[in-house]
Amino acid sequence: IAALTACLASSVSAKTLTVGFSQIGSESGWRAAETTVTKQQAEKRGITLKFADAQQKQENQIKAIRGFIAQGVDAILVAPVVATGWDAVLKEAKEEKIPVILLDREIDAPKDLYLTAVTSDTVYEGKVAGEWLAKDVGSKDCKVVELQGTTGSSPAINRKKGFEQGIAGHTNIKIVRSQTGDFTRTKGKEVMESFIKAEGGGKDICAVYAHNDDMAVGAIQAIKEAGLKPGTDIKVVSVDSIPDIFQAMAKGEANATVELTPNMAGPAFDALEAYLKDKKEPPKWIQTESKLYTQADDPQKVYEAKKGLGY
Ligand code: GYE
Fold first, then answer.
1. Which NCBIfam families match (predicted)?
2. 270: which strand partners?
3. Under a CB-based contact definition with an 8 Å cutoff, are residues 215 and 225 in contact?
4. Nearest atom within ligand 1 for CA of residue 239
5. Is the pLDDT of residue 19 over 60?
């Protein structure tokens, strides 16, 4: 009997966890890396990961989460595409006692509807980008165009707000145009083309601030096609720190990027395992680091180092 009890106990504690992951899609290089790293982290820990790609649609995410609840998963990870509209489905998960962890984006919902959120400080990222620009242009007049992320997403809202804080008090710097590029390269290029057209060929634009590197890479292409030099005629500052932006920085075509880690799943699984095994309540926000890189930081070397980190 003792042997049987011990055997049962160990098989219970060693029970492999099944976790559902509702991912937004693959709009950016950063997100593709996040997906890769999440799968690696699950495998390393012996967690069975059920992966659902929502193709940027909240309704697909809600469907996927309902599916995970129906399958009786042990926990759910969700990278919420937009900030609002989650209460109902999160209540359903709560009723079934399935912990939900938010990855990389925040939501507007009561905090008891999720276990924790693993994100970077996206307001701070915008602020760092704005402060970098303010320092770089000094007292010169500077017309900025802004490529926003997905409308209604927390990083788009916060990176806009943070940038405005970063340039506050610098009356020589003005955001003259601001529009969504949906965090994608294609839309970033398209919207930058329209900005250049609207601003008389782009000669008066001093900088582009993009809420992610992919849109910046698209913008760089548009600047070149307009016969201007990205990085010099038009400064380029963005967020994510994907390998491609370091290549652009090495060529002098981009100026600064704020890094966030694609490994949000590692801290999420750590918190989940501690919660399920030892009933340890994590803090409501697990913040990942942010770091500014400029052309002075040996971009070629950073580019080499980034490969293999999910990119
Ligand atoms: O910066 C961007 C992505 O939610 C923080 O989403 C994330 C953002 C990331 O598509 O590239």
1. YtfQ_transport
2. none
3. no
4. 1
5. yes
